[in-house]
Amino acid sequence: MQIMTLTRRAAILGASASLGGCSAVSSINAAATPLDTYDLSPAPGSSAGGGTGGTLLVAAPNAPAPIKSDRIMVKPGVAAVTYLPDARWSDEVPALVQSLLVRSIAATGRMGYVGPNEAGPVPDLALLSRIDVFQVEVIGAALIAKIDISLTLLRDSDQSVIKTASFRNEIAAVNDTPAAIVAAFQAILDTLLPQMATWAATG
Known about the structure:
- The chain has helices spanning about 5-15, 20-30, 95-105, 180-200; strands spanning about 35-40, 55-60, 70-75, 80-90, 115, 125-140, 140-155, 160-170.
- It is α/β, with parallel strands linked by helices.
- β6 and β7 form a beta hairpin.
């Protein structure tokens, strides 16, 4: 499948979404079609140096509606949003990112406990996150994976902000196959997750 083929398919999908009757039929057909599922792996930050040794709650990330999906988001243009037709993530993007943050921070060994907000002890710190970008952009003949995540570390006892930071990167996929696109996302995370994990674990 060539780049232009993917671009044409994205354009067709975007156009069909604007037609009410066709959209309903497309949704039913899409739900019945099995999609290849892709997961992403954590990447721990540095275990060297001091950490807080306390407990950290990692809240579910906030994200715009188009990102709150298990589909791999594609932007063929500035205003257009569609999804890779033959693939999906193993979970909705916010839940996937939350899991990656928990596992990456915990793997530093610098915290006494790291977990999601659904369970665990009363935390010393809370990590809030916002996913601003988690998508593939079609730029000329290239497919560029992009991630942009903002983090805020709070002291749980008084909800005071300790620090904030943004982490972003982009990498071109080597070709337009789902496996190559997912590999580009993983390459970004292999850089960003250690940075985010070390940043969060040092308090």
